[in-house]
Specification:
- The structure holds 2 protein chains of 2 kinds.
- Chain A has 15 helices and 13 strands.
- By secondary structure, chain A is of the alpha/beta class.
- Chain A has one domain: Peroxisomal Thiolase, Chain A, domain 1.
- In chain A, strands 1, 2, 4, 5, 6, 8, 9, 10, 11, 12 and 13 form an 11-stranded mixed sheet that branches. Chain A has a two-stranded parallel ribbon with strand order 3-7.
- Chain A is globular, with a radius of gyration of 21 Å.
- Chain B has 2 domains: 364 residues, Peroxisomal Thiolase, Chain A, domain 1 (3-Layer(aba) Sandwich); 36 residues, no CATH class.
- In chain B, 33% of the residues lie in helices and 18% in strands.
- By secondary structure, chain B is of the alpha/beta class.
- Chain B is globular.
- Chain B contains 13 helices and 16 strands.
- The chains are: A alpha/beta, B alpha/beta.
- At the A-B interface, helix 5, helix 6, helix 7, helix 8 and strand 5 of A face helix 3, helix 4, helix 5, helix 6 and strand 6 of B.
- Strand 5 of chain A pairs antiparallel with strand 6 of chain B.
Chain lengths: 399, 425
């Protein structure tokens, strides 16, 4: 290290925006978590189970219908959540700050035009496709602007257009790990003075057959019957969830200078990529990351984005069992698996819990999650991707 | 060379290894020779039928094949080739043991048509639906397609192959991605997190749907005949960009670490900058302020005055809007000094390598510094009278080059610039 450690700036979470299957905003989510609400749809994509987005009036954060029409659902969800985060940080419409705000979005891509896909596959299966058939159908049938609604970096692009966040704009890709690294890099940049304030987050539309196909290739989808994340031993898999979650991170000095109040402090984010070739690789990777967080207490709190897919969920459980003093909460049970959004969601719920002075209750009949009384000082957020990528963050109360 | 820190007290970031693959060939030597000879890598696409397409040419890398045929697989292989070359030159770390993180600029990934059609045929019906696809997708038969079509799959493969450290980052800032990958590496070294970083931009995505998508946005040239003449940046009769494939890789190190291990220093990444345009999804703000701001941020980051830049490796896509906007904004930033700056666009020869372009062009910029010779902008027959750049037209030019600005602008309001120098500034 060439930078002196003491020079690292303290980084606060000053804005949180969440929209999900449980509703929108912090109060709705806090109430839903305390009421142990779960919103799943097991009919629309049967036998697959999804956590559908709660009804949202997109106009509230995306006033122009023209903008909404230019976006696919995942972009609308994300642009909406980003607006909530900016509002919660008190910077919405503040052009001076938004004009120099950095942004890192973790993104997948947008939904395909399923009707066009099916029409082409059907013609091909009937054997009546000439050499230029695919080209002609795509040229004639694809909506010209659909590409922009699918492009990964256009969630950030839409946030810039709709909310005016236009300092810098970077889009990280790569499923769950993308948002862990987005948080890690945003934190490192602010700590080192490369950035003062940043918007970080992701969005996911889980109500998509093209995504179900992609995950079905690897047999990752939860089928037939919903079960909490820790009760899927007999029938593993994840239920895709729709959600958007963004955080405003800023240096303590920057927040104090504008009179902003913190929800919590983001102390550390660490990540790694284990080559998952041997059983136990994820357990080992998480064990190696743990001491880098600087958590010394024997007891505490963990919010994990555990997917419910195997073998990663069992491997993560084995890691968590080595820290028996920590009360665990799995967001996958309530929110489903929201891929890139799962880690920011964990950070958001950790900051929300710290700011409300309580960890939300367990939602796990298996008993792996236990009640935890008292006001937490620290919450560890864990993310282990369904196929690769492991990471952790330490979120702390601001004293 | 001078002190190990720049004038802002940050570690100086140097380049110790480079690799490149384009339609002109594999490796720096072939690329440089053909680039400075003014050769074009653009040709009529033969990889798939072009019937029904408005644009039928591209800068495909046809001398590399992958099995099964996927754009993501080719993207991965191109990145691997460029990285092998860069690592061989840098002679850093052990085999499969690169001592730093990976930052990878890569196109978004999705299931592709050959695989989708394979599934459709396997269903065994003639009236299909996505539910039919879902029914046959599981059970392990197509497990390899899950991994292949994950967004993180290319980075994961490179991280394993080259033993980069930590979680590799896959990123997209559209046509600016390659520059952003380099910027992330520079930032990590400046923070002191890493002594070395591997920065790669790669794109192998010339396939029917990708061409159709850009075509539907009217972004591509339709001057198909002859294909080599289609990409004509700064010309009056330019009508769009030409899609292309390629990869550029760079080993970045702190000056201190490079010197300590006796590495040969190829150049310096003196400055990076980016500024978002919130005007429109595909068009630049008419006042050009975000691009102007991006170039100024980059100059400030390098601690240089406009007068100290003596070559611009332009984004120069050959679209009517980009080239005009690039000229107008550059003129504002460089003012009276602009006529003294030779400007060139590599895209006239290699086409637009999209996600790779920023990295490929950074490699070419460093080769320009090394050889003190500027590759030409070919097909510059009818200069656009509204673009008063000193375009290095048609023939390479020998010149004293000490500091190059390389620009990249992309859909979604992405603007990124780099300043590359031979010596620390």
């Amino acid at each position: 290290m060439t930078e002196p450690k003491s020079a690292a700036k303290e980084v606060w979470i000053t804005g949180i925006g969440i929209v999900s299957s449980l509703g929108e905003g912090l109060d709705a989510h806090w109430d839903a978590l305390n009421e142990k609400k779960i919103n799943v749809d097991d009919k629309r994509f049967a036998p697959y189970i999804v956590h559908p987005l709660a009804p949202v009036t997109f106009d509230a954060q995306i006033p122009k219908k023209g903008d909404q029409r230019q976006m696919e659902a995942w972009q609308r969800i994300g642009t909406y959540a980003a607006g909530l985060a900016l509002e919660s940080a008190g910077v919405k419409g503040n052009q001076e700050i938004l004009g120099r705000m950095d942004m890192i979005v973790a993104a997948g891509g947008g939904e395909r035009d399923l009707a066009v896909d099916v029409a082409i596959m059907t013609a091909d299966a009937k054997g009546n496709s000439s050499p230029g058939f695919l080209n002609e159908r795509l040229m004639n049938d694809l909506r010209p602007t659909l590409f922009l609604a699918q492009l990964s970096n256009l969630l950030a692009g839409n946030i810039a257009i709709v909310h005016g966040v236009c300092g810098t704009s970077r889009t990280f890709m790569g499923e769950e790990a993308a948002s862990i690294d987005a948080a890690r890099i945003a934190l490192a940049r602010i700590e080192s003075g490369q950035s003062e304030i940043a918007l970080v987050g992701a969005a996911h539309n889980g109500e998509r057959k093209d995504l179900l196909v992609l995950y079905e290739f690897g047999d990752f989808n939860l089928k037939e019957k919903f079960a909490p994340v820790w009760q899927r031993e007999g029938q593993s898999g994840f239920a895709l969830g729709s959600a958007g979650c963004f955080l405003v991170l800023e240096s303590r000095e920057h927040a104090e200078a504008r009179g902003a109040k913190p929800y919590a402090k983001l102390t550390k984010v660490v990540s790694d990529l284990a080559q998952r070739k041997q059983p136990g690789a994820v357990t080992k990777s998480l064990e190696a990351l743990w001491p880098k967080l600087g958590v010394t207490a024997e007891s505490g709190n963990v919010i994990t984005g555990a997917t419910g897919a195997e073998p990663v969920t069992s491997e993560e459980k084995a890691f968590l069992r080595q820290h028996p003093g920590f009360a665990v909460r799995a967001t996958g049970t309530m929110f489903g698996h929201t891929l890139e959004t799962q880690f920011p969601l964990g950070l958001a719920l950790a900051a929300l819990s710290l700011s409300r002075g309580a960890l939300f209750p367990p939602n796990d009949p298996s008993g792996f999650e236990v009640e935890k009384a008292g006001s937490p000082d620290q919450i560890v957020v864990v993310g282990a991707g369904h196929w690769q990528g492991e990471g952790m963050a330490l979120v702390e109360a601001v004293k | 060379m001078s002190a190990p820190r720049d004038k802002f007290g940050r570690p100086i970031v140097v380049v110790t290894g480079m690799g490149v693959v384009t339609s002109l060939g594999a490796g720096k030597e072939d690329n440089w020779r053909r680039l400075t000879a003014g050769e074009s890598g653009i040709k009529t696409v033969t990889r798939f039928p072009v019937d029904g397409l408005k644009s039928t040419m591209a800068g495909t890398v046809d001398f590399v094949t992958v099995d099964p045929v996927t754009s993501t697989g080719l993207t991965e292989r191109l990145a691997e080739m460029a990285t092998e070359e860069a690592l061989a030159q840098a002679a850093i770390g052990g085999k499969a043991d690169f001592p730093g993180p990976l930052f990878l600029a890569v196109a978004p990934v999705e299931v592709e048509w050959p695989q989708r059609l394979e599934l459709g045929r396997a269903i065994g019906k003639t009236e299909l639906s996505y539910d039919d696809m879902l029914r046959i997708s599981g059970g392990g038969r197509y497990a390899k397609y899950h991994r292949r079509f994950m967004f993180g799959s290319v980075a994961s493969h490179l991280a394993e192959t080259f033993g980069t450290k930590g979680s590799p980052i896959s990123l997209s800032t559209a046509c600016a991605s390659g520059a952003t990958a380099i910027q992330l590496g520079v930032e990590a070294i400046r923070r002191g997190e890493a002594d070395a970083a591997l920065c790669v931009g790669t794109d192998g995505s010339v396939n029917p749907e990708a061409m159709v998508r850009f075509s539907l946005l009217s972004a591509l040239s339709t001057q198909n005949d002859p294909p080599q003449a289609a990409s004509k940046p700064f010309s009056k009769n330019r009508d769009g960009f030409v899609m292309a494939e390629g990869a550029g890789a760079m080993v970045l190190e702190s000056y201190e670490a490079a010197i300590a291990r006796g590495a040969k220093i190829l150049g310096v990444v003196a400055g990076c900058g980016e500024l978002t345009d919130s005007f429109h999804r595909t068009r630049s703000s008419p006042d050009g302020k975000p691009i102007i701001g991006c170039m100024r941020k980059t100059l400030a980051d390098a601690g240089l005055e406009p007068e100290q830049i003596d070559h611009i490796n332009a984004h120069g896509t050959s679209t009517p809007e980009n080239d005009k906007m690039e000229y107008n904004t550059t003129a504002v930033v460089f003012g009276d000094h602009l006529p003294k700056i030779p400007v060139s666009s590599n895209k006239s020869m290699v086409g637009h390598t999209i996600s790779a372009a920023g990295a490929v062009e950074a490699v070419f910029s460093l080769l320009t510094l090394e050889h003190q010779r500027i590759p030409p902008t070919i097909n510059y027959e009818i200069p656009d009278p509204a673009i008063l750049f000193d375009v290095v037209g048609n023939k390479a030019r020998d010149a004293k080059v000490t500091a190059v600005m390389s620009n990249s602008f992309g859909f979604g309001g992405q603007n990124a610039s780099l300043i590359l120098t031979r010596e620390p500034v």
